[in-house]
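Work Package 3 (structural annotation) set out to generate three-dimensional models for the target panel prioritized at the project kickoff. During this period the team completed the workflow that converts sequence records into discrete structure tokens, so that structures can be stored uniformly alongside our sequence database. As a representative example, we reproduce one entry of 459 residues exactly as it appears in the project archive.
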Amino acid sequence: MKPAMPVSPLLTLSPLDGRYYNSLEELRGHFSEHGLIHNRVRVEIAWLKALAAEPALAEIAPFSPATLEELDAVITQFNADDSAAVKEIEATTNHDVKAMEYWLKKRLGHNAEVMKVSEFIHFACTSEDINNTSHALMLKAGRNEALLPAFDRVIERLRKLAHQHAELPMLSRTHGQPASPTTLGKEIANIAARLIRARDRIAAVNLTAKFNGAVGNYNAHQAAWPDFDWEAFNRRFIESLGLEFNPWTIQIEPHDTMAELFDAVARANTIAIDACRDIWMYISLGYFKQKLKEGEIGSSTMPHKVNPIDFENAEGNFGLANAVLRHFSEKLPISRMQRDLTDSTVLRNMGVGFGHSVLAASNMLRGLGKLEADPARLTADLDACWEVLAEPIQTVMRRFGIAHPYEQLKELTRGKGITREALLAFIETLDIPEEERKRLGAMAPSNYIGKAAELARRV
């Protein structure tokens, strides 16, 4: 269910819960306090079911189909009112996981089968067994259901632009100065290819979890059933949740794979920042126009303005996300001795890092959807820079053994414009085969694009 906004968007401390509330619905169910409590309930019930289904643990009777159905319903029907009830208990316990345990026992209090084994709810668990597993599930769902789809939409839009403009010639700029031509599609393909690689790194992170008790040694487990293979059992349990089992931990799971995930997201965000800045420059140069939106205003005083606000907003939000994500990846793998609580408040902000990332990707996608190439502007830039053909001319001169080709073209072109006619005249002086002079003479900035079009179509 969609939780109601708790207060006016004008009064929220975070813009993610105010100004951008409606843009982040897909994340709220995973990273909100309600989402955390819901995942804790899911883990507790899964653990109880796993214990009851194990024949070697004879003291825990197997559940009937009706009870199993009810346990599953507790998870699927869990809502914001249930979370509020847990929080009400927490006001007394001052312990969030214990409050959830008490709520679960109360919620199932009418079920005789469950009540008979009610003390096996949270059996041999430290709070961190529940929390680390819940956090891993939250991250996995948030990544797969919100973050990756957001990047996939951006990548698909970039791919379409790359294919659409694969053959549209464009003047490159290195160090901000005119350089060898490319195509507009190839430049967009470069961005898409980088993001595809970064996206795959995000998807490839296997999130780990542990369920091995207070200090990671199965102390309590073995005290109760000393001859049972708890490590194998817990491995099966963690893997049944779609997570990777970590056999070596202290009280907390060390968060190394979390850090790996946050670093991977930050890397993708950095690539996107680079792309937003370049596209911003292409708009500034006039290579792209932006589609107009009825009623939209670009400046409070300059009526003509059509500002690239989507790319600016995206850049800002990607940067905010990275500031948080990089703190996560640097802080979370560090814990004093077996456990300290410095990770607790940090982990509650995972949704902030993901929220700004998803919001930024949405802004970037919106900006990409407004772009319209201006071939005339691209052509004008190319036609003003015939000196970029100094590269192919001196390279062909090298092929045929002409002395000092680079220096000759440097003298002819460096730091000064040159006309097509002046280049043709120079080519005619070259002692190279006639067909090569003709080939060089047929070159123009607009057709000196190498394999750009082919590469653009391959992304």
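The mean pLDDT is 94.
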